[in-house]
């Protein structure tokens, strides 16, 4: 799914009307039908509903929703805020007139002066159609006070398009208490970039896109840097296996992982690579890992470094020309290991997968950033990213920094989180749509590193491996949570379900 900013969506609306010969009122009706249908599917007509409509086209949407809800048997109370008078857009006036004509029994008030808000409590459903995405500046004055009142009332809030007061685009320095806190945001056609930022979660609540059938050719021809990765897209990237293939056809993956006390990370990464379909998997680790690896993952080969407990300079010299190499899971951050990693990076020209302690080592010796081979994939979580590139106050600021960093270093950054963001060096960003809080468990990232390395070994490009890997990893976590719940999933459960996730995706291909 392509994700657009506010101006792009307005342009798509205009071009759809020109190309398809539809009016703005028809598009408003499509929005209203979608919103009203969603409300009717979730709540009974006995639910007390209050609709707040602003003077613009978001208000027009809300008035149309109120009209359709009345037909469905609801009894909404509608407040049109035309403060000062003569502030309504043409479409808002038309929707007001139609509401009055077609739902004469509805409780409707058009407020032009001082507005006394109706009583609200936790039993109410509030439909927020004050401003949506039509606001360029923060809320102030009476509207700000109304939003605060709605938030403090405990009412369930459904926002149309975007919670009023919120900028749907990436925009720092918002004051959350002056923005509607929606329980459900029914966004028009596309989610907005801001929906994927942690700091906006309490504003957006659950979100769902309402399809209003905007012109698909217009959508495809409108450029954007933001995308949401969905199952059918990943499915189209996965290759079916030839009946006459052998393990030699699916590449060889090397995982430089593990150290004394952290061999579990190497085990999980190896299992991830094997479940992702790599033809051969080798783990290179200190000698202390020999028994652990051979007993835990007998399917993987083992290469011992010269030191018993940690990676040392001179030892990280791959014996073969591996198809893909992943480095970092559990290697530690000893000074000697940092030296070993620096020497290794300086000897490599082909893309690598770098995770966990590899990133922590680089954070301790920043000059190593310039040694990362171009088009490599780094997979930091928030803490690792901030150690590498400096602290960011918000997810939004961190993502914008990642976009710049990926381009500057010509690498792919997989910034892990609820919506893991794949940031490519060409400024494009792909938000992952799978995953569950159950995956907040030690070792989950090691499995992901193994999956990505395993996919690269099979010949998928680095950025494609990261995109597919993140989706499969999240799906495997969801499958594991179905059995173990949000509290009981381990990284081993995720690794065990990687193959099931791929099978699920490949069905009916």
Write up what this structure looks like.
- The protein contains 18 helices and 18 strands.
- The protein has helices at about 5-20, 25-40, 55-70, 90-100, 140-155, 200-205, 215-220, 230-235, 265-275, 290-295, 335-345, 355-365, 380-390, 395-410, 445-455, 460-490, 490-495, 500-505; strands at about 1-5, 50-55, 75-80, 105-110, 125-130, 155-160, 185-190, 205-210, 225-230, 250-255, 280-285, 300-305, 325, 355, 375-380, 410-415, 420-425, 430.
- The strands form two sheets. The chain has an eleven-stranded mixed beta sheet. It has a seven-stranded parallel beta sheet with strand order 4-3-2-5-6-7-8, covered by helices on one side.
- Helix 4 (about 90-100) links the parallel strand 3 (about 75-80) and strand 4.
- The protein is elongated.
- The protein starts with a strand and ends with a helix.
Strand content: 5-15%
Structural class: alpha/beta
Strand order of the largest sheet: 1-9-18-17-16-15-14-13-10-11-12
> How many DSSP E strands?
18
How much is the radius of gyration in Å?
27 Å
Distance between the termini: 19 Å
Number of distinct helices: 18
The portion of residues assigned to helices is: 40-55%
Largest sheet: 11 strands, mixed
Low-confidence stretches: none
What general outline do the C-alpha atoms trace?
elongated
The averaged pLDDT comes out at 95
């Amino acid at each position: 799914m392509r994700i657009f900013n506010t101006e792009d969506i307005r342009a798509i609306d205009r071009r759809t009307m020109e190309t398809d010969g539809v009016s703005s009122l028809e598009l408003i009706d499509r929005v209203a039908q979608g919103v009203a249908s969603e409300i009717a599917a979730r709540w009974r007509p006995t639910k007390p509903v209050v609709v707040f409509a602003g003077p613009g086209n978001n208000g027009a949407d809300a008035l149309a929703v109120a009209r359709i809800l009345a037909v469905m048997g609801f009894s909404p109370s509608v407040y049109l805020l035309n403060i000062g008078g003569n502030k309504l857009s043409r479409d808002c006036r038309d929707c007001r007139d139609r509401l009055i004509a077609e739902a004469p029994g509805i409780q409707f008030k058009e407020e032009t002066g001082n507005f006394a808000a109706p009583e609200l409590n936790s039993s109410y459903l509030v439909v927020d159609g004050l401003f949506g995405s039509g606001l360029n500046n923060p809320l102030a004055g009476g509207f700000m006070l109304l939003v605060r009142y709605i938030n403090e009332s405990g009412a369930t809030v459904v926002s149309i398009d975007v919670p009023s007061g919120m900028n749907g685009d990436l925009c720092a320095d918002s004051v959350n208490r002056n923005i509607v806190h929606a329980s459900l945001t029914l966004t028009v056609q596309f989610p907005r970039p801001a929906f994927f930022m942690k700091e906006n979660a309490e504003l957006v609540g659950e979100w769902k896109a309402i399809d209003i059938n905007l012109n698909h050719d217009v959508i495809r021809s409108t450029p954007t840097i933001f995308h949401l990765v969905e199952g059918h897209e990943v499915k189209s990237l996965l290759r079916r296996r030839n009946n006459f293939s052998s393990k030699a056809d699916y590449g060889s993956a090397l995982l430089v992982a593990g150290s004394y006390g952290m061999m579990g990370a190497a085990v999980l990464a190896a299992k991830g690579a094997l479940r992702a379909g790599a033809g051969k998997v080798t783990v290179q680790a200190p000698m202390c890992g020999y028994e652990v690896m051979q007993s835990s993952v007998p399917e993987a080969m083992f290469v011992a470094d010269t030191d018993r407990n940690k990676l040392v300079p001179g030892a990280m010299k791959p014996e073969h020309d591996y198809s893909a190499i992943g480095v970092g899971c559990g290697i530690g951050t000893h000074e000697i290991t940092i030296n070993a990693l620096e020497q290794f990076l300086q000897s490599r020209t082909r893309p690598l997968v770098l995770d966990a302690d590899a990133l922590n080592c680089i954070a301790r010796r920043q000059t190593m950033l310039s040694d990362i081979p171009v088009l490599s994939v780094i997979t930091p979580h928030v803490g690792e990213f901030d150690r590498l590139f400096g602290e960011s106050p918000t997810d939004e600021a961190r993502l914008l920094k990642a976009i710049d960093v990926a381009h500057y270093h010509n690498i792919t950054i997989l910034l892990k989180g609820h919506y893991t963001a794949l940031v490519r060096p060409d400024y494009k960003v792909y938000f992952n749509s799978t995953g569950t809080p159950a995956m907040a468990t030690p070792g989950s990232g090691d499995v992901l590193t193994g999956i990505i390395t395993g996919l690269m070994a099979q010949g998928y490009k680095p950025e494609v491996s990261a995109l597919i890997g993140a989706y499969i990893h999240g799906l495997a976590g969801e499958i594991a949570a179905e059995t173990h719940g949000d509290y009981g999933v381990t990284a081993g459960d995720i690794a065990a379900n990687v193959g099931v996730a791929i099978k699920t995706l490949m069905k009916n291909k």
